[in-house]
Predict the 3D structure of the following.
Amino acid sequence: MSTEAVERRLYNALWWAKVQSAGPLEVDPETPAVAGLTRASSSDGVWLVPTLPTGAGHSVLEELGAPPVPVELPNETARLLAICVACCWTDRSASPWPGGTGTLAQIRSVYAGMRGRAEQPSDMTLIIGSLRRLHATHWLLWDETAGEVRLGPRVVTWSPADLSTLRDLCRHLPDPPAREVADD
């Protein structure tokens, strides 16, 4: 094996180790491509996200260092991800990444509409907890101070079949209210 090939393998292995330990990583736009990692580019930056084999089972994911993340309250977390997709995927005929920015007010409105009842005091706790979990796993980029959310870099891994399912799901969720713009 040539020195160049060995260096390339070491380079790829180093990046895979970084992603396995930290999850998707925001990198300098000049960072060269890495085998097995997808570049998720937006106006804010570039992320490296693992590209996992289609249909990868638990053992394959474990071997790659990317086992499914155990999530507290998985149903609520999945609901919140769907709501955020509905609020942030502004052009459903295009890729969801990078999407638009949604607000906490929009999320709360869609959540209440989806549940078919007025907002309950406990809803906010569930919403914030789910947003934090989804942010920690890079499915969302949640700015808690500003009360804004964007889709995270992991959405670039969704397959065409996933996107079709998500488009259908978004059609069944209540539309988010228009984003309120603060006066300057």
User: Anything to note?
Assistant: Residues 27 and 46 are 6 Å apart (CA to CA). The mean pLDDT is 85. Residues 3-22 form the longest helix (20 residues).
